[in-house]
Amino acid sequence: MLSLALARFRPAAWTAGLLGALLAVAGVTLAIDRQADHHLAADAERAALAWARHMAVHVPDIDLVFAGDLPSTQAQDRLTSLRGTAGLFRFKLYDTGGRLLVVSESVATAPRPEDIAEADQASAAAAASQGAVRIKLHRGGTAGQPDVYSEAHVPVRHGKQIIGVVEVYLDQTDVAATTAASFRRAALTASTALALAFVAGALLWRAQARRERDTEKRVQFLSRHDVLTGALNAASFREALAGSCVDRTPGAPGLAVLCIDLDRFSDVNDAHGRAGGDRLLRQVAERLRGVLRGADLLARLAGDRFAVLQHEVSDSHDVKALAQRIVENLAQP
Questions:
Q1: DSSP assignments along 29-45, one per residue
Q2: Contact assessment for residue 28 and residue 194, using Cβ atoms and an 8 Å cutoff
Q3: Tens-place pLDDT, residues 68-77
């Protein structure tokens, strides 16, 4: 029953294991992609904060700019020189209410209507009110924009007071490529480890299933056979004899039962011990099997008593011939 159950459930178990491994690989890949984006966002936040602090310290009269004044000539020069440093390719300045004040493309003039985006103004106002950096990642840049870049709204502080917000656009194409390569290696390593774990688990499961099948076969064999000689035991012999009699049809070849009893077997045990007697019984069983035909059955009934169920018997001469072969074979030293 155990071997049949294993055979029945093996395909389902294999499919479930494979599906579980594929889902695990997909989960690892998704987690790694998210981790890569998190890494890019963290890198963008560090760069944006550093740029905002630098601007607050080195741009003259920056507080006046955030109050609504146009940048002075010195402030314009400083703001213009900052563009293009550390991956920065664009910036905008907002007041704390989210009103656009300065655009990097034309720091000396007021922003044009096309520079104003309600979503950016809302994000700038939220950054000012919350006092926190807001990061947005972009991929597949349009014409004039990097393939991968971040858009960060960073509160600018004067002491502890927030005086405005700077919107920083940072080119992260190189960082993204390096990060992607690192995480791809991590994904490959994780996927390989999962695949190896699945294969190892499948092999262990298969080996366990084989051991269970072998154990079941061994249990079934021992329940029907004599442990010492491998011949049928008495109960199995009676069952086989009864089945052969029931299955026999009129006019079919007959059956014969030959009983063999070893003379002076107790003398062997006395002279050579139990181990010597066991070796003799095993040799007798081997010799008896050697003279039987394919359909004939050998059984050890008890102690030194054996029996043969002979099939395909035409007449008494067939029985005498088998008996003669048994006597001659066992007579050999």
A1: HHHHHHHHHHHHHHHHH
A2: yes
A3: 898 888 888 8
